[in-house]
Amino acid sequence: MAPVQEDHQSIAAAAEEAELLVRLRAGDERAFESLVEAYHGTMLAVARNYVKTRDVAEEVVQEAWLGVLKGLDRFEGRSSLKTWVLKILVNTALTRGGREARSVPFSSLAPAGEDEPAVEPERFRPPGEAFAGHWNGYPGDWSSRPEEGLLGRETIDVAKAAIETLPDAQRTVIAMRDVAGCSAEEVCDTLDVSEGNQRVLLHRARSHVRAALERHLDD
Amino acid sequence: MTELHSHDHVTCQEVVELVTDYFEGALPADQADLFEQHINFCEGCDWYVDEMRTTVAAVGRVKEEDVPDEMRERLLTAFRDWKRK
């Protein structure tokens, strides 16, 4: 994407946000409700990264909104509204602490050196052979399939189920990026991970979902 | 992420690890060139990259969670209280 276009988008987004803030501060319930709706998926995904159960994650989201209301008059717009709301959410989840919090903080779940390959090594020619590292047999040509099947209800259910089996950090990143449509920057700011780690987590998550779709489609 | 073994060639096994960096525009120009050259000539990797695009599209169609009614009511009540202050 060209930087110029990004600029236009961010200017438009900033203008929209300024207007939203005016409406919120004026007590516009519809504005508040639409904001709660717009952020809910992202907030739930993030909260689930820090607490053990979905129920507790929902409580954390609700509590975070109360924190947002408390701070709304003091919000100065140094970050985007969304980033600010997500920060409050993470703090709410962290201070919740106690038996509901995960014992392992997010940063220690960030990828280390050892690699989980995107595709099983057996599917490539082994080192030392001619064409080492090239496919033994090609993956499927999904482009020859009708889109209804490829992006139909069943496939999407398989994708959803595959996301649920991911380790927390990977699930959170793919839910934020690909389900909720957050930017890489929003993920890095919210979860306090580097851009590189964000990409590694996204890559592993997408590769895992692709493998699940492949098993489903090749059946 | 993946160490490239030589500077004039990437293998299929390397391509599958570089896809996300490629989509994210995070590959250095020389590596992006090698990546594109590879998928231009390798049907298997071209299909693989297409599968990853389809995967992103499928995940993008997973429906986001709805706000539970009870939560919506509680938050709207909290908003009305906040407004009155």
Can you describe this structure?
The complex is a heterodimer of chains A (219) and B (85). Chain A is built from 10 helices and no strands. Chain A has 2 domains: 98 residues, Rna Polymerase Sigma Factor, Chain: A (Orthogonal Bundle); 102 residues, Winged helix-like DNA-binding domain superfamily/Winged helix DNA-binding domain (Arc Repressor Mutant, subunit A), CATH 1.10.10. By secondary structure, chain A is an all-alpha fold. The mean pLDDT of chain A is 87. The longest helix of chain A has 23 residues. In chain A, 65% of the residues lie in helices and 0% in strands. Chain B is an all-alpha fold and 85 residues long. Chain B has one domain: Arc Repressor Mutant, subunit A (Orthogonal Bundle). Chain B is 69% helix and 0% strand. Chain B has 4 helices and no strands. In chain B, helix 1 packs parallel to helix 3. The longest helix of chain B has 18 residues. Chain B is elongated. The model of chain B has no long low-confidence stretch (mean pLDDT 91). At the A-B interface, helix 2, helix 3, helix 7, helix 8 and helix 10 of A face helix 1, helix 3 and helix 4 of B.
Helical content of chain B stands at: 55-70%
The CATH architecture of the largest domain in chain A can be given as Orthogonal Bundle
Proportion of helical residues of chain A: 55-70%
Q: What's the assembly state of these chains?
A: heterodimer
Structural class of chain B: mainly alpha
Beta percentage of chain B is under 5%
CATH architecture of chain B: Orthogonal Bundle
The parts of chain B where pLDDT drops under 50 for at least 5 residues are: none
For the secondary structure, the number of strands of chain B is 0
Determine the structural class of chain A based on helices, strands and strand pairing: mainly alpha
CATH topology of chain B: Arc Repressor Mutant, subunit A
Helical element count of chain B? 4
CATH superfamily of the largest domain in chain A: Winged helix-like DNA-binding domain superfamily/Winged helix DNA-binding domain
Mean pLDDT across residues of chain A: 87
Largest interface summary: A-B, 59 and 47 residues
Shape of chain B: elongated
Query: Domains counted in the coordinates of chain A: how many?
Result: 2
